[in-house]
Every structure is written in C-alpha cells, then in structure tokens.
Write a structure and sequence with these properties.
Two copies of one chain form a homodimer. Chain A is mainly α and 343 residues long. The first copy, chain A, has 17 helices and two strands. Chain A has a two-stranded antiparallel ribbon with strand order 1-2. In chain A, β1 and β2 form a beta hairpin. In chain A, α1 crosses α17 and α3 packs antiparallel against α4.
Chain lengths: 343, 343
Amino acid sequence: MKPGKIILESYAKQFNPFLQQFFEKYKTEGMLGYIEEFCQRGGKRLRPALVYYGYRLLGRRHSPRIVKASLAIELVHAFLLIHDDIMDESSLRRGKPTLHNIYAREYKSARFGESMAILAGDMCQCLALDLLSSLNFPLELKLRVIKKINDAIIKTVLGQELDLRLEAAGVSKTKDILRMYRLKTPQYSFECPLQMGVILAEGRLRDLQLVSEYAIPLGIAFQIQDDILGLFGDKKNTGKSIGADLKQGKQTLLVAKALEKGSKKERKIIREALGNKNLTKHQIEEARRIIKENGALSYAKKLSRTQLQRAKRALQKMQKQNYNQEALEALESIADFMIERKM
Amino acid sequence: MKPGKIILESYAKQFNPFLQQFFEKYKTEGMLGYIEEFCQRGGKRLRPALVYYGYRLLGRRHSPRIVKASLAIELVHAFLLIHDDIMDESSLRRGKPTLHNIYAREYKSARFGESMAILAGDMCQCLALDLLSSLNFPLELKLRVIKKINDAIIKTVLGQELDLRLEAAGVSKTKDILRMYRLKTPQYSFECPLQMGVILAEGRLRDLQLVSEYAIPLGIAFQIQDDILGLFGDKKNTGKSIGADLKQGKQTLLVAKALEKGSKKERKIIREALGNKNLTKHQIEEARRIIKENGALSYAKKLSRTQLQRAKRALQKMQKQNYNQEALEALESIADFMIERKM
C-alpha cells in the first residue's frame, strides 16, 4: 500500500496545474493576484484529493473534470482560512504572512489589512461557486454539490461561532470542545469533499452514508491531532508559530482536559498562560509539561486513535462491498498519514 | 401612477411575512437570531421588489414562489452590509447599532465583535444560497440565478476593493470614483435583482439587455444620490450619522469634484476634514458650504439626473414592446422615488 504522503503528493501534482489554469481566466491584478499567491503556497491538497477518491470509490475512472471539480473545495478552504486568520489574529499561514498581514504591511494599516482580507475571503467563496456552476457535469449533480458545500460551510461557521464564544468565556468543558470540533472540522474537511465526489459519480444515499462513517470520526481525530501539533509540533512542519494557540487563548481539548485533571497550582499556571500575548518560552514549556504529565495529552492521543480506528472500520465495511479497491487503499493511507503527521 | 414609495411599501408588506417564515426554519439561537433581527429592521426592500417586477415585466402573474425567490437578494444585501459596516467602522445601520457593534458591546471586545460579524456575513451568503437551491423553479433557472447573483457579488467585491484603495490613497479623480461606482452598486442593487426576475420568468437575452439599460444608469444615479444624502441628508431619514463619510475619509464624487474645482484654501479645508475622526460640526458645515458653492453639488445632481433620464428612456423603449404595463409603471415610480428621496 502506498503511503498517504505519496498519495497526496501525487494528487497535488495533478491538481496544481488545474489551479494555475483556473486563475489564468481571471485578471490577476489587485485582489485576484493575492488570492492566487495564497492558494499556490501549497498545502497538502487533502480536501481536493478526497473529492477525487470519493469519485473513484464508485468505480469511476480518472478524468480531468473531477480534478477540476476538486478545485472548488480548495477555494472554499482558502475562503475559510483567510477569514479564520483575521479572527485568530494569526501572523503566519503555510510558512508565509497571512493575507491580512500582507495587506496591512503594504498600506501600513491594520484596518486596511483586515478589510481587504474580509473581501478576499468573500471573493474565494464566489470563485468556488463560479467554478462549480461551470463544471461539465449534469445540472442536477452540480446543484446538489453546491448545496452540499453550502451546508458544510454553514456547519463550519456555526462551529467557529461556538469556538469564539468558548474562547471569550475563557474556560470550557471537554464536552463543549468536542461539540465544537464536531461542527467545525469533519464536515467541511472530510465528509463534504468525499460526498462531493460520490455525488458527482452519481452515488446513492447508502454510499453517502458509508463515506460519512469514515469521514466524521477521521475529522474529529484530525482536529484533536491538530491541537496536539499546535502545542507540541515543530514550526517547520506545521508552518504555525509555536504556542500561538495558547497565546490566543484558544479553547482546545488538551487545555480543557488539563484544567479538569490538574492540581490547583497546575490550573493556575495554565490559566495564566491562556490568552497571554506576552507568553514566555518558559511558560509555554511549563504548560506543555503539565498537559503531558497530568494525562491530558495521552487522553487526547487515545481519543484520536479510537476515532481513527472507527474510520478504518467503515473502510473495512466498504471493502466487503463493491467499492473500488484502489480508492479504499488510498483512503486508508490518507487516514494514517493525517493522524501520524510529524510532531 | 402609484408613487414609488407606495409601491415599495406594498411589496414590503408581502415580503416581510416570507422573511419571517424563512427564519422559522432555522434555530434562531446564537448567530441566526442576530441575523434575523438585522434583516427584520426594515429597509426599503428595494432589491426584492426589483426581482418581483423583473418577473412581472414578462407577463408572469404574482405567485408566492417569486416572492420567496426575492428573499435571496435581501440576504445577500445583509451579507454585504454586515461586512461593509466592519470595513467602514460604521456604528449605525438602519437606525440601530451595526452587528459588529452589538457583538462588541455584548462581549466588551472589538475583536470579538468584528470576528462574529465576519462570520454572520458569511452565514448570510450561505442562507441566500440555501434558499435559492430550495426554490420551486426548474433546475436550470435556479442555477442561472445562482450564477447571476454570484457574478454580481464578484463585481461588488471588486468595487469595494477599489473603494478601499482609493480611500487609502487619499485623493481620487472623479474618473476613478465613477469607475468604482459602476462596479459597486448598479449590478448587485439594480441589474442583478431585475435580471433574476427575468431569468425566473424564462426571459431571453434581449430581455436581460433591456432591463440592464434601465438598471445600470439608475444604479449610478442612486449611488451619486447616496453620496449627496450622506453629506446633506437628515439622520432621521438616512439612519446614518451625519458627516460619517467625511470622517471615514470616503472618496466620493462630491469630494473629488470639490477638490478639482476648489481654490487652494478650499482644497485645504476639505483635505483636513477628510478622514478626520474628530471632525467638528463647524468643519462639516464648512466642507458642505464649499461643495455647494464651488459647483460640485450641482455637478453631482446634474449627473444623477442625466442617468435617471437614461434609465427612463430604456423604460420607454420597453413600453413600445410587449412588456407588462403595470410592471413598467412600477419601475418608473421606483426610479423617481430612489432619486428623489428626502434629503
């Protein structure tokens, strides 16, 4: 079985020229140029690859029109990232300055930077829709895909709303965090792209349900893993600055669990770190140590693993039916890769 | 002929219960509740009325499904207003606090307010699409309407980008202002809603072109009129704080023309007022006086009138053809009303 990393890289190689071609259609002066640069920074192209393998799963052969369709979810991804980065006041994305930061520097105005990035995000959502409505697929399928993406964005926005509310409230229960995770990530990053592929391959309700059984737990596992990387990962691999989640006061499963499990003293240390913009390296290391030692890290790792196993069981179920073997193997490798990413 | 005000009010009476019903479908806890309140504040419902009369223009009879379709453009309008208000740092909208202000107050954080309003705007765009994809019209027409709205949003975003760039640059030529106006308003506020109606009535290319000949000049006239109201209007009627455009440093046709026509001293006064957050009442009055006396105001009024006449000529052209008389009269009254709004 090919490793997930290789599978994603090989899909990215197919995908990237389509992305480039897509932008050639637009005048890339002004905003479109910034958006193109942002989209071309790389990224794993996970979501487009899932569109592709959702399509292949139903026995469809490779075709340019499905690669083209997979651009849409990457444009939606760009839209959500650009807006998220404003809300999170992030400075780096994929190892380069976030879009609002680029604009802010150019015009020496934070206000201008945010305003332009709001617009650029809005534009990306429009570009996704523009692409979808021009695809070479039957009308009915296009409309169903548009509705599917739109539903996923609604869920993501509601998840993000909950995220901001939890952050503003300061302390969260693991139960709330998990509810937020369920809304925020699995649908738009895993279920929606796979189901887009299934819809475009004219799959039925049963097919949609089965890919969900894989996608949702994988998405939750991924989100938990993302937290772990955010605190224990290497800047080189994650492209994000270390401790950023802590500084921002982000409510994560790790933090919630550590606060639930920790001693009074430990809780105090974590609470003081949370949302502290002037966090020192020592404070980050202290928080890490507590999260490791009081079992929050192993709790999160275990939960992530359980969810991964669930996702794999769904694949095994599909294996007993008439789904494409190559696509199933790709989905298994991708699952492993997404959860075992380098720390 | 019924006055435009009455026509819009009577459409709003039909429209508002549909809007209320639409929100009943969603849980109005959290964000959806805020969005509902925002949408229900009133407003002229100009854009939905244009959808309706675009449909009627082709001889179609009144039906609930077209009123329902007209909700979409109002939701898009809400999306654009909510994001615009963040960018413009506006405090009032329709006589009440802007959405980012409501959130900011609630959580005592400007950052939180802006973040939630970014999300709420995104959500409104999704709601519009959700509504459109569920309409009781043939698939092909729905997809064409989705594409039409999307194209209009793209134009509006590009117009807004140009607007921000001109504002950041500080001084603009009337030529640039007019280019920005052409992008920003006429398509999404006039052409797009009318063409939506025409498309849903299964109109042809010729019909689409004719409504454009009415919509585009009317949109430009409206935008110019909006500037005039922004500077010379009554807060009671406009719902916006007086001098807000000046304080914000907005580049308007009035300001650009006054700077082109003014004496050195007059230019200095206007430049000092522009973007000055601590603008005094006296300074606002001084700027107004200059804009009146050096002919910028009459230039703008004349241009607005010429565009209005153009729009009316397009209606006369349609009158000679087989378009619905009642709809034509409504469009004429609406045009008059939009340009002759109270100062």
